[in-house]
């Protein structure tokens, strides 16, 4: 059952407009793939843990509600993570791949949180139609 939920979720993601598929791909690269590369750093482990926690919550919400705007709530784990990362960021880090990656995470995840906030508010206000419907 869990594998079906994940497969259906990614089918729904791939059904979105290409710009959003690219956005999700970018977030996965920054929050899943790159932390593995930098896994020895505390920042990478925190980013990876927040991503995995968000993914678990997102799969749960998707299984319960479908591909609705409420899915943005899953990124709630990024709310404490982003200020923490920003507080650890030093300008000299921009000279390193690690620092450029951290800045990219802060910017991209921050933009995502703004999009998510709008989506969750819209859901709470009654916009509850699934964005993507999968065939049964």
SSE layout:
Elements lengths: L1 H13 L3 H20 L4 H24 L12 H11 L8 H28 L12
What does this structure look like?
This protein is mainly alpha-helical. The protein has one domain. The protein has helices spanning 2-14, 18-37, 42-65, 78-88, 97-124. The chain is elongated. The mean pLDDT is 94.
Instruction: Find the structural class using helix and strand composition.
Output: mainly alpha
Helical residue percent band: over 70%
Sheet of most strands: none
Q: How confident is the prediction overall: mean pLDDT?
A: 94
Number of helices: 5
Unreliable spans are none
Topology order in helix (H) and strand (E) letters: HHHHH
Count of DSSP strands = 0
How big is the Rg? 16 Å
Amount of beta strand: under 5%
Shape: elongated
* Number of discrete domains: 1
Distance between the ends: 15 Å
Summarize this structure as a short list of keywords or feature phrases:
mainly alpha, 136 residues
Summary?
This protein has 136 residues and is an all-alpha fold. Helices cover 71% and strands 0% of the residues. The longest helix is centred in the C-terminal third of the chain and has 28 residues.
